[in-house]
Model the fold of this input.
Amino acid sequence: MSPDAVRWRYRGTAHCFGDDLEHDAHMIPFEFVIRRVTEPAELLPHLFEAVRPGLAARMKAGDVLVAGQRFGKGKAHIQAYIALKAIGVAIVCESLPYNTYRALVGLGLPFMSGCEGVTGRVADGEEIEVDFGTGEFINHSRGTRHAYPPLPPQARDIIELGGTEGVLRDWWARARAAEHGGRG
Amino acid sequence: MSGMTAVEKVFARACSRARVAPGDIVHPQPSRVFVHDGHVEGFRRQLDALGIDRISAPERVVFATDHEVVYLTPRAAERGTRIRATARDWKIGHFHDVGQGGHGHLFPMETGLVSPGMLVFASDMHCSNFGAIGAVPVRSGPETVSVLAMGSVWTAVPASVRVELRGHPARGTGGRDVGFLLARELARGPNRIDVDYRYLEIAGPALDAFGLHERVALCNSPTEIGVAGVYLQPSAALLAWCRERARQPFAPVASDEDARYEQTFVLDIEGLGPQVALPGSPADAVDLAEVAGQPIQHAYIGSCGSGLYEDLAVAARLLRGRRVADGTRLFVVPGTVEGARRLAADGLVDVFLAAGAVVLPPGCGPCAGGNLGPMHSGEVSISTAATNHAGRMGAKDARCFLASPATVAASAIAGRIADARELAGVGP
Done:
């Protein structure tokens, strides 16, 4: 596996939130949105500082953010997701708006939505394992497991390529190859 | 097989398909692609990093300069130089630099860059304004970079919800007030529905009396509650207006009689009076009477929702021969250069200046994150901005009420939230 390859299986600590976790009000100060900051290093210290100070520093690669309904509601901004991806945290939620769905696919951040009742299957700090390729959800702290629907193949293909950037890189390489008679 | 909604027809045409259904993942070919000033630099950096040195179909791309029209920081001036260099390097077909065009959600309708029946991609959600003339805008956000490079991007065909407006609002009450009420009822009302990424097709006899500015105003607040867009069937008069200025041939569409809507939402607006959205969300609307008398220090008329000539003319009618209250500052922001010129030619700029208002250059004004004309901690504002969450126009603990141009003008005169209909001798 190359170091850049997308991992689909996560094992780590669950960080649980309820319904209606908003991007601007809850996940990252609006100031970073309006300044269009996209540098993870600048965003990380402020991730969740409004609602759970210190959480960002405790999050580690392999952890999973678990949320209820309408995760990322409000304006479709992406700064918090850039920071989560930089840490290596994936997302499981009960539902999310279309624009948040697009933002996560576009960033190449593994996630699952439509996970009904997931907030009742795990508590903050428990150890969980999630396979975003198959939808398998395991709570190691409780010894329980559940099957959720994974993302559709079209979305997984984009995430596999690394999101929008990966798709563009792939498209450009093929466009250049075609221009230079790559098929010959 | 059932018929199609107007939105589905426009999607199908842009995909060269006979029909599409909600949920289909498609790659539509847009007639126009809009990139607003704040997004250009990031897209350039992204494509540069990938070695992509050109974009697809630059002749259909529009760069709009509206969020930062007056550079207030050295960083903004630097951004301006990069935008100009990018417009040149990418051979952008319609580059509207500082002082050209104005608000990218408004001037394209006036200049005929967007016409009824067109599918357009845009980097900013308030492209939903174009639904006011029967176009079908799609917010592509950060993925507009894909549209620039590859010509399109994966898009789900949205389901349509039909909104039926029953009755007529009271005198002096218009598109903005109905929009606040509609946003509230869709998002919070007893019959609230899930509107996430649904296209609202709004119809009803009240629309017959709505000119373009009222139609634009009606599209504005519902955009803030997560809809994919708002579609209004253009009237014959509006189609004629669009035809006069179109830069390209266009073919309007209309929903079939037997089109399938996900659901129908009925909103009674008979006798509706002026609405005010409470600080926090454009969907937190109440009757003006509930907040009348609230002292204000800041007022602003303009934004993508209420920045057309006619919006500002309503305000001018109230401000003529009157003064903005001491201790209150009023910013007037024409949305477009064309509108600003008409205001000047008709003597309305003079009315604003005589009243003690500050006239800002065409564009977003204070709504673009409070860079221009911001508020201090603890201040209270009433404006026609698109949204009003904490910190939108300056200090985080400043409070932003939203209302129609008439209500904002009357409030600026009174120094407190006031009903324009109660100003002596004035019929808005």
Summary: The CA atoms of residues 217 and 306 of chain B lie 6 Å apart. Chain B touches chain A through 28 residues (CB under 8 Å). The longest helix of chain B spans residues 74-89. The longest strand of chain B covers residues 160-166.
